[in-house]
Amino acid sequence: MLTTKYVRDHIAEIRESLQRRKSDYPIDDLLKLDEEWRGLQTKLQELQARRNRESLEISAIKKEGGNADGRISALAAVKAEINKIEAELPSYEDRINHLMWNMPNVLHGSVKYGKDETENVEIRRWGETKAAVAGGHTEILEKSGLVDVERAAKVAGARFYYLKGDLVLLAKSLERYALDFLVEKGYVPLQTPYMMKKEYYKGVTGLGDFEDALYTAGRPMEAKPEEMREGEELLLIATSEHPIAAMHAGEVFSAKELPLKYVGVSPCFRREAGSHGKDTKGIFRVHQFDKVEQFVFCSQEESSRIYDEIVANEEGIFQRLGIPYHVIEMCTGDIGIVAAKKIDLEGWFPSQQRYRELTSASNCTDWQSVRLDIKYDDRGERRYVHTLNGTAISIERALTAIAENYANADGTITVPDALVQYMGKERIGGR
RNA sequence: GCCGGGUUCGCCUAGUGGUAGGGCGGCAGCCUGCUAAGCUGUUUAGUCAGAAAUGGCUUUCGCGAGUUCGAAUCUCGCACCCGGCGCCA
Asked: Per-residue pLDDT for A221 more than 60?
């Protein structure tokens, strides 16, 4: 069962944070269940101690050739009581786990209250925004034959796409560019599994995401859904953040192994339930995309500094690509339950004359590590690591930003300087 | 997919129904003058008491269920690893 000691140790901060979120999370229910569970646990342990003690006495009697039948039948009542308590415990544990998995993280002190994404706070801007040259990314890319959304809809449905020709090469160039950028800074490249067990998924994201974001995959052909055991089905990953976080579940790092920095690369699969009608054209919001992701395990003292580093990497990557952007800090209404602090970097889209999300960085502090049991040895004391994640490049999303910001009047797209060495040419598209 | 062999503390290993033991490594302490050795302790997690140092109890032999007063050990199911066969990008 997930450790509730953590909640008791941090109860003041948890309450304060829930108030700032104006959350209706039932923290008192959790504390009450926990207290009842511990009471049962104590009773059970006393009975087990008695059983163990008397079993040893029976052993001693039998070794001396005596008759222990009376003692054995006297223990039957104890055994019945043990069985009764053991039968009650799972229902408490299920409810406690469910509440733990849904408990919002303790917010960083700087996070402001806000009802939804309209109340996020802009903290800085970079680059010069410009007017649209040749329409939106959908128009630019389709005219040049670089994407085929219609046939993808025929074959796979809405929100899928074929990339074609030089756009495929540009996508791979972006991927390699982002990998090289981070490898140079000491990040270890990691290509992850694309499916993951539910039991690990619960530790990396809120249960709400299971409904809205995740596809189920890998159900055994012969198994009917109602026969599936908990955690048996595989889920398609929504980001490589998730398998990277789960990778070290149950482990204890030594202090000198930290910080451990990965740069993950994987496709991402998202149901996008609840976003009907939003961004339905082109490849801006799709069910499947590729992403290069930063992920760091570190000590509790380091996580603020590393959060800044991850954000700086994101800005460096887009500055070298020459995409104008601004940085916004999530308010309580848009931050979700996992992160303690979260920023998005939004790039300028000339055709829409506004900034749209390109990357997202979160300091999850110990939310994931508590649920995945990932610790480190801090001079003999075992403490939960902090985990952080941040997009390096979300490939298809970045392609839309490049298409719009580098579009020329003749329908071609200039290849950003940083990618020319990978592309081997300076311009793509056109007729 | 089939056949065989495995899974005991960080690593190696003993243990065929009666208190999970040994070795190595790590950590802490002690002792000792010679590049290191020796000795002692400690090395799963939870819970209770305590301000704390600590102490009690439970738990832990891949996971789950069962038999039993008592399971690493017996029974059933499952997972994973290694070897072989088959298939295969």
From this structure: no
The answer to whether strand B lies under 7 Å from the CB of residue A45 is yes
Give pLDDT tens digits for A320-366: 999 999 999 999 999 999 999 999 999 999 999 999 999 999 999 99
CA angle A334, A337, A343 (to 5 degrees): 45
pLDDT in the model for residue A223: 46
Q: How far is CA A426 from CA A88, A101, A262, A376, in A?
A: 68, 49, 31, 48
Are A72 and A122 within one domain? no
Residues A97 and A193 both lie in one domain: no
One domain, residues A293 and A404: yes
Residues A97 and A122 in one domain: no
A130 and A97 in a single domain? The answer is: no
Residues A221 and A288 reside in one and the same domain = yes
Q: Which nucleotides of B are covered by protein (CB under 7 A)?
A: 18-19, 27, 45-48, 56-59, 69-70
Say yes or no: Cβ of A256 under 7 A from any atom of strand B.
no
For A40 and B76, how far is CA from C1' in angstroms?
A: 30
Give the nearest nucleotide to A75, CA to C1'. B69
Using the structure, give the distance in angstroms from the CA atom of A68 to the C1' atom of B87, rounded to a whole number: 60
What ipTM score was computed for the predicted complex, to two decimals? Answer: 0.81
What CA dihedral angle connects A220, A225, A230 and A232, to 10 degrees?
10
**Same domain as A59, residue A166:** no
Dump pLDDT digits (tens) for A177-211: 999 999 999 999 999 988 888 888 888 888 777 77
Are the beta carbons of A364 and A388 closer than 8 angstroms?
yes
Range of the domain at A277: 117-429
Give dist(CA A208, CA A215) in Å, integer. 13
